[in-house]
Structure formats: structure tokens, C-alpha cells
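Hey, resending since the last one bounced:
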Amino acid sequence: MGTRAAEQREAMLRQLLTQSAIALGLMSTVSVGLGWLMAGRALRPVRIMADKSRRISERNLHERLAVTGPDDELKDLGDTIDDLLGRLDTAFAAQKRFAANASHELRTPLTLQRAMIEVALADPAADGDSLRRVCERVLAAGEHQERLIEALLMLARSERGLDRREPFDLARVAGRVLRDGDPRETDVDTALAPAPASGDPRLMERLAANLVDNALRYNVPGGWVRVVTGTAHGRPFLRVVKSGPEIPPDRIGTLFQPFQRLESRTGNPDGHGLGLSIASAVAAVHDADLAAEPGPRGGLSITVALPVARN
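The C-alpha cells again:
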């Protein structure tokens, strides 16, 4: 009797073990299937984002991932990537405009030189004096091209960054610029208080020279320029204010883009539209804040505030 009961108990245990194994296998299969399905649905936006990202290149940077759905981590990632694509699109467009403008600006003097030489050679009555005048004009066009190339190289150097920093005084930098500059019959007023700063003094001298030259070049007859240096809230600053016609506030930002001018080339034939863009690039590599606003009575006021000088 006891042996039969033991056999029945053992049979029941084997049956229970078999049923448990089958149930566990079914539950595992269902769990894996549900997990695969849920993971696929959860990762589907990631696959879509990856596919769209692979298709985006420099030729179609205007396209966006445009992730839809609830405001979760994946949508935030998609929006962040879209913002990055937008900045890249803007940078590529600016680079293309710069290359096109630079090509045009460099080609213009060459075309002018070629035309002057061809006209002189085609004139059978040309004498030594006329050929000399043509050579002088060709030389002047070449000098303009040299200044443009020098400005482009300076712009590239300014955007490259700082190799080293050293202390300098903005007041002395501005003073040297004013001593070496051409006043152009413009009243120049100065208030050069000490402004100790840190950075590349040669680049900062170029920044100051460009701001002062811009103020003198694009002024009005009998106009004035005011150059101020000092410290405010512990930060050294340089401010250049000039007289002149009123500048629309929405046009001020474009003046710091390469080859942008308010005046026509006829009115200022020696300008090439790179002075303020170089100043902006120099300020950027020095982590300085450059602010431009309309002057108190027309004209323009530009302030460059550098970080606190490092010891």
C-alpha cells in the first residue's frame, strides 16, 4: 500500500514538473515575443531617425528629421539634431556666399587690368605717356588686390584661434592705431583710460585699426569720431563712435558679414567690405562681446568688451 502511494506521488510530481516546464517555456516564448514587439515599436523612431540622417548630406541640409510623437527623450534628441542641421545649413550657406563673393572680388581687379592692357595694346597711336598712365592704373588695381588678399588672410588667421595669450593695454593699442592712422580731415576725440587685457595684441591692434578706419572711411564731411577705452565691471573695453547718416537697426548686423557695405563702391572705391568682419572674428577668438548700435545722432557706435584680464 505504501509502495503504491509512493509511485502515485512520484508520477504526480513528474507530471507537475512536465507541466511546469511546458508553462515556463510558453511564458518565456510569449515574453520574448512581447519584448521583441515592444522593443521594435520603441526603437522604430530611432531607426527612422537613422535612415533620415543617412540620406542628409551637404546637398540637402535643408531637410529635417521632424520627429513626431510625445515630448519624450527621443523627440528631444530629434529636435536637437534638427537644430544642429539648421546651424550647419546656415554655416554652409554663409561659406558658399563668402566663396562666391571672394571669387568676384578677386576677379574684378584682374578683369580690369586685362581690359586696360588690351585697350592700350590695341591703340596704334599709343605713346610712352599713355602706356605709362595705363601701367600706373594697372599698378593701382594690383595694390587694391593685394590689400584684399591681405584682408582675406587676416580673416582666416582671426578665425583660426589664439596660439598664445599675453597681457597688453587696450589704451596703448588704440593710441598706436590713432598715431599711425589717417585722420581724413575728421575731428577725432579720444578718452583713452587704462584697460589692461589679455590676448593677442597684434590681432587686437588689427581690430582697433579696422574699427577706426571704418569710422573714418564711412563718415560725412566735417564729421567726428570718438575713441574710448577703459574698464567697466572689471572688463576692459574699446568703444568707437562715429557720426554719419542714420543706419537702420536691421542693417547693422549685416555690416559684420564679409563683403557687406552700406555705401556703394563708387562712393568708397578703396573699401572691400572685410574690415568689420575681421573685427568680429578677432573679438570672437578673444571671447569678447561686440555690440553695435546706432549712434546718438546718426552714425554707429561699436563697443568691444573683453573678458577680465588673466593674471
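Residues 73-159 form a domain with the Helix Hairpins fold (CATH 1.10.287.130).

Sorry for the duplicate.
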